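Chain A, query sequence.
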Amino acid sequence: QVQLVESGGGSVQPGGSLRLSCVASGSISVFHAMGWYRQAPGKQRELVALHTNGGTTRYDDSVKGRFTLFRDSAKNTVDLQMNSLKPEDTAVYSCNVGWGDWPDLRYKWGQGTQVTVSR
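Chain A, predicted structure.
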């Protein structure tokens, strides 16, 4: 019903930048939310940045001022620009999209892309 294709992960030195991209395709054309989450080894998955149809973008406090979420609703893409990367940003980053109307809300995860920040 919905397919997500992620790209842009990789390895970078502290202070560097990466841009993650996620493209949603399929039979659903309108999403009430699109965003990125991450999971570091031994930790729970956490929200990085999320944009909802209300026009609000929410960021985790740890990435505010460094990461920026770009959503193109016409193309159903959501990019995460990551600047001033730190070793603690190392994690598997996954795109997530949501659609449907309450109570029939649906969500889809991307396959995940590794981001490694080290010297």
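The chain has a mean pLDDT of 95. DSSP finds no helices and eleven strands in the chain.
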